Amino acid sequence: MFSLELGEEVANLRCAFCGKPFKSVCGFIKKDDWAYSVYFASLHVEHERISVGLTVSIGKWWDDSEDSIRQREWVFIDIWPSETGSGFEMKIDDPELSRHAASGFLGVKPEPQQARKSLNREEFFAVSDFIIDNDPAVLCYLPGKEINIAGRTCKH
């Protein structure tokens, strides 16, 4: 159902809130061979708590017309390892926490309460699960492994 095209690099950036370094990756998701989703993942490597800030936009991504942009919806999802050590927890969070909050090309930006009731809610979580399982940097970072910038793989 989904397929992934990774962005070209792992960027080294600084957190606008605390000034600590973090890494950022992006990618593109196809659903049934159609451009369906764009995501940006902030990997908070220098923070005490392992977490990924995932900005996910879903909708009509095969053109950039104003009509297509209005048909997209995006959310900001906080992801962290579960306390039991088996899997991950996710929650739709304040979209203003995303470093892409002002990006108009992502589409409609619902508030968390609206997003939790959105018809796209299950799709946001399905795409997020797919990203966790398939983006090598995210897959590597969440269990606490070091990310290899050049190869976008885990260092062992």
Characterise the protein shown here.
- The structure is a single chain.
- This protein has 156 residues and is of the alpha+beta class.
- It is built from 4 helices and 9 strands.
- The chain has one domain (2-155).
- It is 20% helix and 37% strand.
- Strands 1, 2, 3, 4, 5, 6 and 7 form a 7-stranded antiparallel beta sheet that branches. Strands 8-9 form a two-stranded antiparallel ribbon.
- A hairpin with a 2-residue loop joins β3 and β4.
- It is globular.
- What does the overall shape look like? globular
Average pLDDT rating: 88
Number of helices: 4
Main pleated sheet: 7 strands, antiparallel
Order of helices and strands: EEEEEHEEHHHEE
Separation of termini?
Answer: 31 Å
Q: Give the radius of gyration.
A: 15 Å
Low-confidence stretches: none
Q: Could you tell me the strand content as a percent range?
A: 35-45%
Classify the helix fraction into a percent range: 10-25%
Helix/strand-derived category reads alpha+beta
Question: Total strand count, please?
Answer: 9
Summarize this structure as a short list of keywords or feature phrases.
single chain, 4 helices, 9 strands, 156 residues, seven-stranded antiparallel beta sheet, two-stranded antiparallel ribbon, globular, alpha+beta
Please give a quick description of this structure.
Helix content is 20%, strand content 37%. It is of the alpha+beta class and 156 residues long.
Summarize the helices and strands and which ones pair or pack:
Layout: E1 2-6, E2 11-14, E3 21-31, E4 34-43, E5 52-58, H1 66-70, E6 73-81, E7 88-93, H2 112-117, H3 121-134, H4 136-141, E8 146-148, E9 153-155
Antiparallel strand pairs: 1-3, 2-3, 3-4, 4-5, 5-6, 6-7, 8-9
